[in-house]
Design brief:
By secondary structure, the protein is mainly alpha-helical. The protein has one domain. Helix content is 77%, strand content 0%. α6 packs antiparallel against α12. The radius of gyration is 22 Å and the shape is globular.
């Protein structure tokens, strides 16, 4: 490792230790490298602007954020919750099962784990805490675990960013996440059923048949969004990036015109919050472009690929090594940082070993989602704690079961690539 690279990491680490926002810490690290190497500081602006202006696919990120926030503000989550009661509410531990089903449905609209936890998850927690059989820790743990499905089932903000850094097809990545997302939900539902049986949790709902038509009708319009998005993308009516605009418009029409639950004041608040969240992501992406220039200038991806090639690893050994690395990184770093800084360094090695980039991308994103519920960083844990007041230690204690379930699912996706690749291949995508 060169002295310039060591200086960049030192500045980055120092910034994080003194709680400078991660984007500014990364930017400071990249600029310190340029100064040390006596390079033109204008390179920083050049790398950032070239990356952002050439990244058409990045337009999807703020639009999906906006769509998710509109849906949460527009009472769409409550309608999905009521609809899901009809499907699984009669199961033992029904409220927890309902939350997982709602997360599956909502994931087809938002593409964000945090939006899932803050929207449908909050509705479910409030309902669970009304019943003594559901402890606060278990309620919070179920919500944060189910929220990890959000970026796996399409659309997915992390997969859009991965497509940007890897060159993989966004459409193939979206399809590749469908079966893993459904399997994650199925595994979690089995885990909930096991806990519910041990704790004698109730079968929560008994809906009158006369109420069924109205509940179904209330849920049909929100349920139409995933159908519109996927049909539009794979029929060629619009691109995955344009699908984000369709999602935002669909959410605005439902919340503002159909349900009339979002007034002008609420719309302004949603727009302001979406702009703030989009700015945070964009700043991280911008600073990552500079760091990636540093890694490229130092030849880090090529050196890493040569090192992996020299070790004589098989595809499966490499993927297992990547899983361990990302699970560790996910305990400390934000998803966008891992995607934009570390994943680009691993892609040349993946190509060298013939690892399918769509398979690699879906496995990587699942890894990062596990990191969001794993201490000590666990972004979803902190978000849920801030929204509900449920102590972190209680959610962590109840959450180890779900961490184990998700790691088991991750191993399945890693060693059985067809769980990821079958659907893209069926739809005609060449993924390697």
């Amino acid at each position: 490792m060169s002295h310039g690279l060591m200086l960049m990491f030192a500045v980055l680490a120092l910034g994080m230790m003194i709680r400078v926002p991660i984007a500014f810490s990364m930017l400071a690290g990249g600029i310190s490298y340029l100064i040390f190497k006596h390079q033109d500081l204008g390179l920083a602006a050049e790398q950032i602007l070239n990356g952002l202006y050439n990244g058409y696919v990045l337009l999807a990120v703020p639009l999906f954020i906006y769509a998710a926030n509109v849906m949460n503000a527009g009472a769409i989550s409550e309608r999905l919750f009521d609809f899901s009661k009809l499907l699984v509410g009669r199961m033992r531990g029904g409220l927890a099962q309902v939350n997982i089903i709602v997360s599956v449905i909502f994931s087809g609209m938002s593409g964000s784990a945090i939006a899932d936890a803050a929207g449908p998850g909050l509705v479910t927690i409030k309902e669970m805490l009304k019943k003594p059989e559901y402890t606060p820790g278990f309620a919070g743990a179920v919500v944060v675990a189910a929220a990890t499905i959000g970026p796996i089932i399409p659309p997915s903000i992390p997969m859009v960013i991965y497509a940007l850094v890897s060159g993989a097809s966004v459409g193939a990545l979206f399809l590749g996440g469908v079966i893993p997302g459904l399997l994650m939900a199925a595994f979690m539902m089995m885990g909930v059923y096991w806990v519910a049986a041990r704790r004698n949790m109730p079968r929560d709902f008994s809906v009158k048949w006369s109420h069924v038509p109205s509940i179904v009708l209330r849920g049909l319009l929100p349920l139409s969004l995933p159908v519109v998005l996927l049909t539009g993308i794979y029929s060629g009516a619009f691109t995955p990036t344009e699908a984000a605009a369709v999602a935002a418009l669909h959410a605005l029409i439902l919340a503002g015109l159909v349900y009339r639950t979002l007034n002008w004041k609420g719309l302004f608040a949603v727009t302001l919050e979406s702009a703030r969240a989009s700015t945070v992501v964009t700043l991280i992406i911008a600073s990552a472009y500079l760091m990636n220039y540093v890694f490229t200038a130092e030849g880090v991806p090529q050196q890493l690929a040569a090192w992996v090639g020299g070790m004589g690893l098989s595809q499966w050994q490499f993927l297992l090594l990547v899983n361990v690395l990302m699970l560790v990184l996910g305990c400390f770093l934000d998803v966008s940082v891992i995607l934009l800084v570390f994943v680009p360094m691993l892609i040349p090695a993946a190509k060298l070993l013939g690892v399918d980039l769509v398979h690699f991308g879906v496995v990587a994103v699942v890894n990062m989602m596990i990191g969001m519920i794993h201490p000590p960083f666990g972004m979803l844990l902190f978000v849920t704690n801030a929204l509900t007041g449920i102590p972190l230690k209680d959610m962590i204690r109840e959450g180890w079961l779900f961490v184990g379930i998700l790691i088991t699912a991750l191993m399945l996706f890693t060693f059985v690539p067809q769980t990821v690749l079958w659907l893209p291949h069926l739809m005609g995508y060449k993924t390697i």
